[in-house]
Each structure stands twice: as C-alpha cells, then as structure tokens.
Amino acid sequence: xQLQESGPGLVKPSQTLSLTCAVSGGSITTDYYAWSWIRQxxxxxxxxxxxxxxxxxxxxxxxxKSRGAISRDVGTKTVYLRMSNLxxxxxxxxxxxxxxxxxxxxxxxxxxxx
Length: 114
Hints:
Blueprint: E1 2-6, E2 10-11, E3 17-24, E4 34-40, E5 47-53, E6 58-60, E7 68-73, E8 78-83, E9 92-98, E10 108-112
Parallel strand pairs: 2-10
Antiparallel strand pairs: 1-3, 3-8, 4-5, 4-9, 5-6, 7-8, 9-10
C-alpha cells in the first residue's frame, strides 16, 4: 500500500484547507481498514485529526470540533480532508495513514500565513 498526500501548501487564516490522499496498492474498503489524517505542528508531537473507516464511518478528534470533514471516493481510492476556519496553529505537516499499519504518506506541509 502506498499513500500520497497533496495540498495547497500555503493557506490564509480563516480559509478552508483541502487535502487529498491517493491510495494505491490496496482497496480503501477492505474490511476493518481505517484511513486517518494526522498532523505534526513544528516542534510538537503527532496529533490525530480523524479517520474514515472501510464502511465510510468518520471519527474526529474533539479538539478539531466541527472544523474537520473527512470523506472518500471509493472509485479513485482517494481520501479527503477539509478543515475550515484555519488558524496559525493549524500550521503543520499533514499525513495520511492506514491505522494499525506502517503505511504512511510522505506528508504535506501546510502553512497558515497571511
């Protein structure tokens, strides 16, 4: 399984972030798979944002509250993250990860700056 994140790189405060995770080498609907988004702010540890399971159920970190939305396109094997009302504190490297595995994307840098 390979995961490849992509995104805009630079986002202004209050704007909405849209990230894409392209999955290859496997199906995103395989039983019991859960695809998560995780981020790492500069100088800090990893923070789980949320995930979407093989059945399409989503779960979110309560700290993200209603700002985050994870979705998927089964046909293209793509997982999406949308996060609204971005703040400077959302600056981080964002990763796509198959939970319970060693499969991670290479990460995509998101910088929130005016």
